[in-house]
Amino acid sequence: MAKSAKHKKVETIGVLSSGGDAPGMNAAIRAVVRTALANGLKVKGIRRGYSGLLDEDIFEMDAKSVSDIIQRGGTMLFTARCPEFMTKEGQDKGAYICKKHGIDGMIVIGGDGSFQGARKLYERGINTIGVPGTIDLDIACTEYTIGFDTAVNTAMEAIDKVRDTSTSHERCSIIEVMGRHAGYIALWSGIATGAENILLPELYDNDEQAIIQNIIERKKVGKTHHIIINAEGVGDSYEMAKRVEEATGVETRATIIGHIQRGGSPTAKDRVYASAMGAKAVELLCAGKSNRVVAYKHGEFIDYDIEEALNMKKMPDEFLVNMAKKLSR
Ligand code: ADP
Ligand code: F6P
After folding, report:
1. In the chain, what are the domains?
2. Which atom of ligand 1 is nearest to the CA of 111?
3. Cβ atoms within 10 A of the Cβ of 312, count?
4. In this predicted structure, what is the pLDDT of residue 9?
5. What is the C-alpha separation between 18 and 80, in angstroms, rounded?
6. Nearest ligand to the CA atom of 176
7. CA of 135, closest atom in ligand 2
8. Dihedral (C-alpha) 115, 108, 149, 225: value to the nearest 10 degrees?
9. Residue 168 CA: distances (Å) to CA of 7, 163, 165, 227
């Protein structure tokens, strides 16, 4: 939809976080608030994503509202999933509430689902910019999403620890990392820890027999442990552990790292990139752009049309996937 006269020049920016939280979201919120203020704009924070918008949980933010948050995980604005906003009535109400509170530019920090919501607000006359925030890295238009770096480092540290005990007991360990539909955390944490098998939801062929064979062969050549990284979306790790132990005779344990991956103090990369993306979002609105998503590609912060971004597809890097297989001998 082309930008029309009903899209006003931005004077007041609203900011919300939506979907799963991700470390670095606070750095992005801080950058939005302070960049907006530096540009002479007003900022309103909206708590609990679209849910808070519909409940009018909206408050004015100043520079001090975002003090002491850059180093904190989670999101000071809270986050939520809001089924009501999937409906036309919810979206109409959301746009009406924005207008009622003078919000003419909205910055939505979240994943693809949240961007769908942003698009609906744009269609109702609110200028919108999406900022990619998800530990999953599963937003096709960008090589970076807020929180991925911290989540991978958290997973890596946890896997290193499991590996110590796995080696001492000469066991096989199946370690489940987050990513229901996306294997980026599994791929990166698996490469970083030298895992023997990395199972990605996008590519796993369900050939458990090949994994079993792999464990048996490596045991024969003297491997003292066998680490399998299982992305959440692939299947039940506890059940897999039982089957693997039975088939190989190698004692096998399953560990689910879980929501630890979503929290914690963000890495320097997540703080800096999230700050850049938050600032960029405000600059786009100031430049009269709308219905865009901030992205990072080939070393640059850029932006895409939301529709175009939502239609893009990506898969885990083939070179990394093949390399991981070769390095795990
Ligand atoms: P993410 O943003 O991380 O992909 P979700 O898919 O859970 O997370 O979406 C977050 C929220 O965005 C949803 O709870 C809903 O309020 C809103 N949303 C998702 N899809 C749509 C849609 N098609 N239209 C309007 N709003 C949507
Ligand atoms: O999208 C981030 C993510 O952590 C996924 O990796 C995971 O599948 C999902 O959220 C879990 O969501 P929740 O437990 O908050 O419902």
Report:
1. 12-147+266-311 (3.40.50.450), 149-262 (3.40.50.460)
2. 2
3. 14
4. 87
5. 6
6. 2
7. 2
8. -50
9. 63, 9, 5, 13
Q: What kind and span of H or E run contains 45?
A: strand 42-46
- Is the pLDDT assigned to residue 5 strictly greater than 60? no
Instruction: Kindly give the distance from the C-alpha atom of residue 50 to the centroid of ligand 2, in angstroms, as a whole number.
Output: 18
* Nearest residue to 184 (alpha-carbon basis) of 226, 223, 245, 140: 140
Q: Is 117 helix (H, G, I), strand (E, B) or coil?
A: helix
- Token representation of residue 322: 């093949």
Q: Which of 136, 138, 270, 303 is catalytic?
A: 136
> Closest Cα partner for 295 from 308, 263, 201?
308
290 vs 288: CA distance, rounded Å: 7
- Express each pLDDT in 167-199 by its tens digit: 999 999 999 999 999 999 999 999 999 999 999
Q: Is 135 in the pocket of ligand 2 (CB under 6 A)?
A: yes
The atom number, within ligand 2, closest to the CA of 262 reads 4
Residue nearest to atom 6 of ligand 1 (CA): 113
Cβ of 262 less than 6 Å from ligand 2? yes
Rounded distance between C-alpha atoms, residue 226 and residue 207, angstroms: 17
Average pLDDT, the chain: 96
CA of 243 to the centre of ligand 2 (A): 26
Other CB atoms within 10 A of residue 36 CB:
27
Ligand 2 center from residue 232 Cα (angstroms): 9
Task: Judge whether 207 counts as a catalytic residue.
Answer: no
- State the Cα–Cα distance between residues 195 and 245, nearest whole angstrom: 18
- 240 closest CA partner among 254, 220, 226, 261: 254
Pocket lined around ligand 1, Cβ cut-off 6 Å: 18-20, 50, 81-82, 85-86, 110-114, 116-117, 120, 134
Instruction: Supply the pLDDT for residue 197.
Output: 96
